[in-house]
Amino acid sequence: MDVNENIFRSLGGMEGRDVFNYWRLNEAGKEHWIEYWKAKGFGSWEEWRKNYATEFKLWEREWLLCRILNPLGNIPFLRGGPLRSWVENYYRGLSAPTVDWIVRENIRVESNPAVVSIAHDFPRNSFLTGLCTKEGVRIIEGMHRCCAAAVMKIQKAELDRDVFICLASAFEEELPVVGGFTAD
Questions:
Q1: Span 147-160, mean pLDDT?
Q2: Across the chain, which distance is largest between two alpha carbons, in Å?
Q3: How many C-alpha atoms does 67 have within 13 Å on its Cβ side?
Q4: Tally of helices (H runs) and strands (E runs) in the chain
Q5: Mean pLDDT confidence for 22-50
């Protein structure tokens, strides 16, 4: 898969299990995610997240790990992923709005406690996940971090950390809207 070398620096290929492990590193131990999956009736983070991995064909895709060049300049122009809660609450009928649009058009996003916290102390070694589509790169994991980067750009803040993204091709696909899973 070719990537725009003005935005991404390719670091090599990877497998779906590697991507899932980055998801685990990003989320599994965080208290708000533990409360979330437990409230949905799941017995573990893995049990909950495997639903997303399956719907997005995580295990079947060929993945490329990239470093995002100029993260505050480029992340805001990535596209919102087909994630049910984001689609229903923030996209206002658009199928793939930019992260910048999502933040600028939804005051609740800019003031979201998770977004505010991340913008204040952006995590080191952050790994996003995106699918390359006809609309652009759609984020399937890492929306709060992407929105925090867009907020930081608006606030003219600096980001002195590398941000990475796991990318796979989905050009020929109609992506499903994913989310709202319960253990029942």
A1: 96
A2: 45
A3: 8
A4: 9, 5
A5: 92
